């Protein structure tokens, strides 16, 4: 039987079952501030992000719903057991018998945050926003049915998403192993190998050499080995067009340079940091913090760009294929070599230019062999990356489908009183 529906007048909720009521949240939940903990312990501490980022000795007791106050405001989290939240997140506790905490959590995934958000440096919400937000409230028994339905479909969909994520991880591992094999042993499985006397790479093809990085740079370039701007460019100087300003987030793990979120600077500002100007085929690598190991190569489609001090750059001699050097740095061998030096720093991991000069790279003597390896890796990696992209699309579609089911369930468009749910 078709269920009678009515206009909720809530905007985001649309039509809801006729017998449901709509109330301001303040009649059902208490919105509490977070704060910095003062004691050490093993209780997980949350902010507005998706994960616990530390532990403490103080605690609040769930069930509760964590709501974003500043930053990632549209990612509520359901908590059972002991927890603590800092001031970037509110914790919402149910105070009425007419609302179940987990139903409120599923509702919160669908709130129209854009209507309330205050845009300062970071998006933010207030306690008043959450308290005065009207929510649909079905009978408690139906809330239980809705929760059971969403829990079940979420478990099934999440399991499928996890499977695709595992496949992506395996493909990423395979891609890195293919790169490492090619740049340390070559393409001929029967090639004669020779000892190098180097503990980090004891054996390479006989016709190859281990070459220190300073010997493969273009000596005609005054700044062939260096890094980017040291603080002259500020965020308020970013433009929507102009000279691309490459940041660490534009680098990848052996993948093409990402320009989706690239920022720009003016030609005048670029002249202030002209020494770190990049050109096509410059090899880039991250040199600070947890991003060490990320790499990129400047494509021919970007004739001029610049970068930050967190990014190192190599202008490669014409005797060598710059894409081959990129692949060496993107290999397991290149990654571990970076971290051997970076992990020796007293404060945070960092690569100095002196560290980089100590890098030793396995390189075929013949440029043609370098070219052959690059062509092989370009072809193989392209296919692997295409497969990874396909799995990411599937994951995105599954997440959209899951969110659609949650929305339709919490607004009564799927009648969860029936086994399996009935679309209204």
Automatic annotation (TrEMBL):
Q: Start and end of every Type I restriction modification DNA specificity domain? A: 33-173, 234-388
Source taxon at top rank: Bacteria
Biological process annotations from GO: DNA restriction-modification system
Give the Gene Ontology MF terms in alphabetical order.
DNA binding
Keywords of this protein's UniProt record, alphabetized?
Answer: DNA-binding, Restriction system
Entry-linked PANTHER family: TYPE I RESTRICTION ENZYME MJAVIII SPECIFICITY SUBUNIT (PTHR30408:SF12), TYPE-1 RESTRICTION ENZYME ECOKI SPECIFICITY PROTEIN (PTHR30408)
Protein family membership: Belongs to the type-I restriction system S methylase family.
The identity of this protein, by name, is Type I restriction modification DNA specificity domain-containing protein
* Source organism per UniProt: Bilifractor porci
